Structure to design on (779 residues):
């Protein structure tokens, strides 16, 4: 791997640049764009730049405009025989390659390009695919005038309901019971299918043939055997349970045995085959007798009835496991096909469709010609944040730029150590494949950190350098120490005139905390870590108030401090701990506003507005913190009919305003009429809550344009609450820009800079909300 020299990097073939955090990745991308513009004499609209988010495209566009103007001024000065406005080795090097006439022409070209920057081809991957499908609609087979949809949940809901009706139409009694017990209804099934969505979609293992899946009828036969066996062997089993010296009596005490016998007596008297087996049944199986019931040094008690119960348990578990795999596989295929058919009929494309349709076109019979036409339009491409790509995205660029056989100019920039978007489908293995395709001779590294203090860079080098494979895949994701430019050393943190260690590890004291086998319990560890973090922040700010804690020459301020967390829950813990210390904070999170408590309350209030005559819904809405009624006030409605009628009339008026003038008018009147704004602002974290409410109001207003009617909008909000929102417009917004401590999720913090950073929960792990392990494998 070679250090990157942006002035001399060959602008042909595939080049992969690994840019560690703070090494000036955007600066280098902008300079490579400038070089390509001049050295290949391309129009500004023919250099493709792809990055990860809309915000990143705007930032890149702004940085590029600024750099083009700087370069134009620099070259103009050189043409006039004067020095540039500022010392710039890269621009000096580039200017030194040009004679005066070409230099003047270059200055004009750069200035003209800066004025036409809106024509630059700077896209997100979805924006790029959408543009290509529009321009090459005939070649790609895409709709000529598609409508981009960010919400296909209604189509998926309809498809799931269709599958549910078809599946149950031919199902027997036991299969119907199992369907209802497992999923409850089509919405529950659809929620289970979420894990199978992706680009590309995961494959369920094992891949079953119809004959591999046992039916429920065989369970009836085996259950009848269990019932007959209990009639025949009951006294033997009772005698064995009560007299066996081999049984471990803490697990098989008299109470446990009696409960098991009572359960088996009841089970033997029922006709209906059970689809769920409690512990009382499992007490009769060889597996539990061996695992929990037998003393050390004794043989496991055996009996033909135990064998019958064990075989029934095993067959029931295997039947349900394989039936679940079959249903999820079939339902997933059906829902995807029906949703695709619905989108085709309505000429809709989702964000995933943009990638999949272009990928399919490039891999199809006319793919080579389509790739040539796109390549002719964009003969050079710079792909930023490439560590966050996925197999479909990489395959698109492989096809367009003819990798790896005859690579056209393609520059991939990223850092696999910062690959944190797997929850959005990013696949580090796609990056690793691109790295192998590029070959060792075409891989470059940026080795100087311009952002962090020298001693922090040295500490990080030491920490990761001690491990032989800190990122597991050492051949594909090696760790290379970086140098420090020392730029941040000019404004260090000083406490009483001394620089504390740049990288500090704090250990929790176990005194007074709950321990489990000598280790602090997770709950206590969370509380203690949040309290310790808040205490240290409060200490630093108190020192700053006394003039003893500074950032360079300036006093340390609250907004100089960031706390990195993984989730909204962790952020809440830190903010509560800070409030107890009297320290104000603000949260920056990549969590969806639909996962907030305000969204849950909004759902209750919308349900009431949809049906204001329902007293139960009205009382549930009143109990929210947004409306603020306490229990005694709600109980008063039982005795005060006039109060209840007055309240219903108010909500009926809000309902009518919604129906006549739209959701926004009705809900704004509710906010005003019920005094919501002032009440919420007075609550703890009032600004945060009010920001969420106004954000939800904005999103609901937009959704009401495509989901008219109270019922449709209510279902839309329910779907959003149930799904994992990922859109940028759904992310929680900053509630204040005052001088406050910043509590930031790791995903939201990417690219941001803070003088002082705390990481109170580095040991925690994130588990998806409400998701249990699945009884199948995904590949």
């Amino acid at each position: 791997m070679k250090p990157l020299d942006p002035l001399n990097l060959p602008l042909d073939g595939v080049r992969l640049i690994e840019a560690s955090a703070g090494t000036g990745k955007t600066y280098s991308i902008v300079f490579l764009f400038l070089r390509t513009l001049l050295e290949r004499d391309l129009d500004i609209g023919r250099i493709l730049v792809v990055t990860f988010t809309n915000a990143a495209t705007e930032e890149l566009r702004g940085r590029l405009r600024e750099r083009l103007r700087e370069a134009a001024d620099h070259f103009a000065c050189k043409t006039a025989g004067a020095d540039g406005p500022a010392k710039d080795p890269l621009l000096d090097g580039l200017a030194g390659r040009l004679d005066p006439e070409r230099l003047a022409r270059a200055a004009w070209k750069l200035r003209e390009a800066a004025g036409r920057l809106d024509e630059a081809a700077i896209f997100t991957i979805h924006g790029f695919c959408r543009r290509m499908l529009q321009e090459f609609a005939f070649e790609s087979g895409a709709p000529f005038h598609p409508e981009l949809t960010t919400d296909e949940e209604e189509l998926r809901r309809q498809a799931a309901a269709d599958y549910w009706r078809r599946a149950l139409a031919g199902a027997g009694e036991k299969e119907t019971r199992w369907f209802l017990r497992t999923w409850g209804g089509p919405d529950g099934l659809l929620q289970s299918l979420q894990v199978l969505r992706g680009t590309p979609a995961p494959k369920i293992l094992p891949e079953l043939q119809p004959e591999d899946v046992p039916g429920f009828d065989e369970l009836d036969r085996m259950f009848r055997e269990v019932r007959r066996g209990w009639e025949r062997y009951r006294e033997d089993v009772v005698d064995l349970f009560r007299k066996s010296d081999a049984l471990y009596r803490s697990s098989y005490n008299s109470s446990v045995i009696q409960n098991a016998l009572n359960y088996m007596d009841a089970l033997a008297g029922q006709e209906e085959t059970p689809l769920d087996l409690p512990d009382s049944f499992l007490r009769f199986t060889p597996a539990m007798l061996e695992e929990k019931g037998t003393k050390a040094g004794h043989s496991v008690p055996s009996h033909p009835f135990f064998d019958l119960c064990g075989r029934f348990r095993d067959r029931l578990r295997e039947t349900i496991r394989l039936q679940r795999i079959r249903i999820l596989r079939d339902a997933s295929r059906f829902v995807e096909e029906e949703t695709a058919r619905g989108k085709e009929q309505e000429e809709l494309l989702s964000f995933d469709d943009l990638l999949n349709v272009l990928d399919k076109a490039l891999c199809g019979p006319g793919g080579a010609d389509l790739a040539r036409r796109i390549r002719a339009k964009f003969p050079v491409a710079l792909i930023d944040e490439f560590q966050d790509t996925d197999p479909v995205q990489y395959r698109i660029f492989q096809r367009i730029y003819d990798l790896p056989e005859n690579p056209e100019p393609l520059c991939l920039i990223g850092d696999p150590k910062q690959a944190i978007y797997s929850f959005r489908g990013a696949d580090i293995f796609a990056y690793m494949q691109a790295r192998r395709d590029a070959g060792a001779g075409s891989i470059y590294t940026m080795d100087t950190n311009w952002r962090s203090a020298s001693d922090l860079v040295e500490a990080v080098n030491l920490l990761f350098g001690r491990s032989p494979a800190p990122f597991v895949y050492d051949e594909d994701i090696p760790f290379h120490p970086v140098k420090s430019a020392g730029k941040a050393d000019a404004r260090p943190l000083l406490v009483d005139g001394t620089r504390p260690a740049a990288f500090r590890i704090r250990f929790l004291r176990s005194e007074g905390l709950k321990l489990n086998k000598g280790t602090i319990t997770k709950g206590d560890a969370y509380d203690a870590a949040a309290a310790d973090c808040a205490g240290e922040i409060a200490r630093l700010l108190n020192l700053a108030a006394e003039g003893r804690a500074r950032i360079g020459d300036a006093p340390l301020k609250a907004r100089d401090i960031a706390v990195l967390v993984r989730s909204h829950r962790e952020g809440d813990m830190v903010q509560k701990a800070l409030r107890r210390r009297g320290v104000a904070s603000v949260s920056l999170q990549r969590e969806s506003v639909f996962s907030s408590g305000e969204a849950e309350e909004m759902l209750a209030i919308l349900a009431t507005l949809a049906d204001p005559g329902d007293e139960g819904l009205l009382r549930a809405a009143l109990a929210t913190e947004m409306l603020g009624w306490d229990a005694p006030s709600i109980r008063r409605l039982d005795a005060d009919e006039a109060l209840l009628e007055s309240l219903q009339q108010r909500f009926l008026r809000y309902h009518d305003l919604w129906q006549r003038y739209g959701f926004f008018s009705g809900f704004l009147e509710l906010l005003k009429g019920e005094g919501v704004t002032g009440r919420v602002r007075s609550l703890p974290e009032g600004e945060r809550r009010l920001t969420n409410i106004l954000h939800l109001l904005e999103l609901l207003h937009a959704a009401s344009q495509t989901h008219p009617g109270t019922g449709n909008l209510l279902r839309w909000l329910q779907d959003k609450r149930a799904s994992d929102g990922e859109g940028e417009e759904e992310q929680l917004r900053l509630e204040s820009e005052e001088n406050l401590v910043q509590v930031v999720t790791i995903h939201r913090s990417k690219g941001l800079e803070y003088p002082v950073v705390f990481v109170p929960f580095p040991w925690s792990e994130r588990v998806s909300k409400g998701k249990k392990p699945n009884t199948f494998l995904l590949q």
Summary: The two ends are 32 Å apart (CA to CA). Residues 593-723 form a domain with the PCRA; domain 4 fold (CATH 1.10.486.10). The first helix runs from residue 25 to 39. The chain has 30 helices and 22 strands.
